[in-house]
Amino acid sequence: MARDRLVGLVFDDRYLTHNTGLDLIEDRSPYPFAEPIAHPSSPALVGRAKHLMDLFGIAERMRRVDPVLASDEQLTVYHTPEQLARVTQIAQSDGGDTGAGAPIGRGGDRVARLAAGGTIAAVDAVMTGSVDAAYALVRPPGHHAMADEGMGFCVFNNTVVAARQAQLVHGAKRVLILDWDVHHGNGTQAAFWADPSVLFISLHQDDLYPPGWGAADQVGIRDGEGFTVNVPLPAGTGNRGYAEAFAGIVTPIALQFDPDLVIVSAGQDASVMDPLARMSLTLAGYRMMTEAMMAVAAECCAGRLVLTQEGGYAPQYAPYCSAMIAQTLVGLLPDGEWIADPYGERAVTQPASVELGRDAASAIERVVSIKQRYWAI
Questions:
Q1: Of the candidates 135, 311, 312, 335, which lies 20 to 30 Å from 205 by C-alpha distance?
Q2: How far apart are CA 282 and CA 280, in angstroms?
């Protein structure tokens, strides 16, 4: 592949061993049905994404970046030593919850460290110039994880520790984190709430999960005021609404911040088929968002861009979204075609793909009115 654009891929079969067990009611009692119901965070989602990347010839155009096990030193830039010990203790038993809805099985501490270490390895590769951009196809996800507890399927906050790696090891002064997972990245927001060196932008379904996090008027405190940019959007916003939010909020603020590195918490659970949300994005929406971040990185920081996997729970559709992100990073394949959307013609014609709904327009206008105190938008 030509050196003018080299994209790294972090993937390891050990990610597929992360055991979330069975789906639970309020994280306590299993459903009373005779047949078991698997947890939504299934290894099949990441495995199928890699499968598609192989089938479409995308992975062979990417440079393999080996993950590492994140060390205590790397994790404790955010997480407490007590949380690390707790995760290890649970992993040495028969497994259990590492906090509030973040289960692991036996040995799960090593997989969680490998997910954090995979995102760190992607940052290392981009910051040292061995690749221009990288996709960390890791699990478990990370953006809900708080300093002292796992949360919402997330054990360690992969994005937070990777951003600190860029700053502490590679000297990055400003890091942009864009979180397009449909759920708010509360752990990431908490980590950088008072820190002006990290701009955190989150687009998410309004007040979906966790409750109370991600309101437009949550902007940070002290020196970090204005450097948290929440864009809560109504259900059904779709491709058109997301495009408007990027054009009017995300891209202009990102360019003004002028980051040394762009990291994306890339959750594919805003998709049209996701069972845990209702945002109606199609493959074209994920291509648009990826292209927008590539453009920001190209203008601000020589293309330095890392995407790390977060959520996405539609077993038949989320893997296609991930594969589309990877294809966008490497560019069109020799056949000159984008991956066909399995949602069919409806992906193009559904109202959410072409129309800006009134609720979405109002939500975007409210965010703009708040962020104009801090940014020229």
A1: 135
A2: 6
